[in-house]
Design a protein that fits this description.
Layout: E1 2-3, H1 5-14, E2 22-25, H2 28-38, E3 42-46, E4 59-62, H3 65-75, E5 79-80, E6 83-84, E7 88-92, E8 98-107, E9 112-118, H4 125-131, E10 136-140, H5 149-159, H6 163-182, E11 185-196, E12 199-202, E13 206-209, H7 218-228, E14 232-235, E15 240-244, H8 247-259, E16 264-269, H9 276-287, E17 294-301, H10 306-319, E18 326-332, H11 335-344, H12 353-367
Parallel strand pairs: 15-16, 15-17, 17-18
Antiparallel strand pairs: 1-13, 2-7, 3-4, 3-7, 5-6, 8-9, 8-11, 9-10, 11-12, 11-13, 14-16
């Protein structure tokens, strides 16, 4: 089981490995707010489970909050290395003096954990391994013996770390192995481990958990499931985002759009019992997709309350800088209150799915 960077860094921090100030967000407004709170230049990092994201455009830098908003908007909803970006990590930008590489892997042929470390860290570590393998220190561990702090310092010395940093780097090596063991990892990696004027920090974090050990790491598995299971989402080729509360209702809305000549851009099922916050999250996901020119929100309230839907809609309309035409079909539980909230805010709505779908197609054509 692969673990997202933001979760791996939370684990590293918990286990005593220094990490940069950071926070995971799911929309551009949150990204801007975090940057304002940090009050310093930041890195915007797509949270995907494949390597090479930096060279593929999945990492960007920004100095000001408004720049953070625009670049977060650009990354969210995009595809990097064939994976859709639904989360980003906003992290302080570091003034790096040097970069190291540190990794612990399970060497299945040797049946032992293998520590690999190098003074040459960064995105091109593969080239270092290929062209100058002598620069990589390799240290096998016997799982029956305890790995002690002095052994971490030995590895730092073999790397060629300056005397002033041997203790700090050795401590990170020792703590990373503790993470490797405690979380049943097959890979625990920091690339790069960076040196700054203030000390050393894990600027990146990679953690893969042995699939056969996931039953022992239930909390970690649940963290990875939280975002993925929140909505049923499929990206499509059209330009009208479709959001519904229930798979059948969402599909019916898509069919109705096509009947009137529209093309769905998304299938997004918020499910039953969605809260005001979930409605807002769903809208932010589709609005962040630059292919979306109109949003068709199709809600037949049962467990989901119409007034919660209305408040979620207003949260997004008031906060988002990207103004995309929105058509709402809203009926069901607390519909009078929900419709009143929208009406007082000057937001139109429909009670008929057919009328709403037709209006969404017309608005999209006018928008284009």
């Amino acid at each position: 089981m692969k673990v997202h960077e933001y979760i791996a860094k939370d684990i590293f921090k918990k286990e005593g490995i220094p990490v940069p100030q950071n926070k995971m967000v799911v929309n551009p407004d949150e990204a801007r707010a975090v940057a304002m709170e940090m009050g310093k230049p930041v890195v915007i990092k797509s949270q995907i489970l494949v390597g090479g994201r930096g060279k593929a455009g999945g990492i960007k830098f920004a100095d000001k909050p408004e720049e953070v908003y625009s670049k977060a908007f650009e990354i969210l909803g995009s595809t990097v290395k064939d994976e859709r970006v639904e989360m980003i990590l906003i992290e302080e930008k570091l003034k790096i003096l040097s970069e190291y590489y540190l990794s612990i892997v399970l060497d299945r042929s040797a049946k032992k954990p293998l520590i690999m470390a190098s003074m040459s860290g960064g995105v091109d570590i593969e080239e270092v391994a290929r062209d100058t393998p002598e620069k990589i220190v390799k240290y096998y561990l016997d799982v029956l013996d305890e790995f002690l702090p002095y052994q971490g310092r030995e590895i730092a010395i073999k790397m060629g770390v300056p005397n002033a940093l041997i203790s700090k780097v050795g401590a990170v090596v020792w703590k990373l192995f503790n993470v490797f063991q405690k979380y049943d990892a097959t890979i625990a990696e920091i690339n790069p481990l960076v040196v700054t004027a203030d000390g050393i920090l894990a600027a990146d974090a990679k953690l893969d958990i042995d699939d056969d050990s996931v039953y022992r790491q239930k909390n970690l598995a649940e963290l990875e499931k939280v975002h993925k299971s929140e909505f049923a989402y499929v990206k499509l080729d059209g330009n009208i985002a479709v959001i519904g509360n229930g798979a059948g209702l969402t599909l019916s809305g898509m069919d109705m759009l096509k009947l009137y000549g529209g093309e769905p851009a998304t299938f997004l099922d918020i499910g039953g019992g969605s809260s005001q916050e979930n409605i807002a999250k769903a809208l932010n996901i589709v609005i962040s997709d630059l292919d979306v020119k109109t949003v068709f929100l199709n809600v037949l309230g049962g467990i989901t309350r119409a007034d919660d839907v209305a408040r979620g809609v207003l949260d997004v309309l008031n906060a988002s800088k990207r103004k995309v035409p929105l058509v709402i079909r809203l009926t069901g539980t607390n519909e009078e209150e929900g419709q009143r909230i929208l009406k007082e805010a000057g937001v139109s709505y429909e009670t008929s799915m057919e009328a709403a779908a037709k209006k969404a197609v017309e608005l999209c054509k006018n928008y284009l």
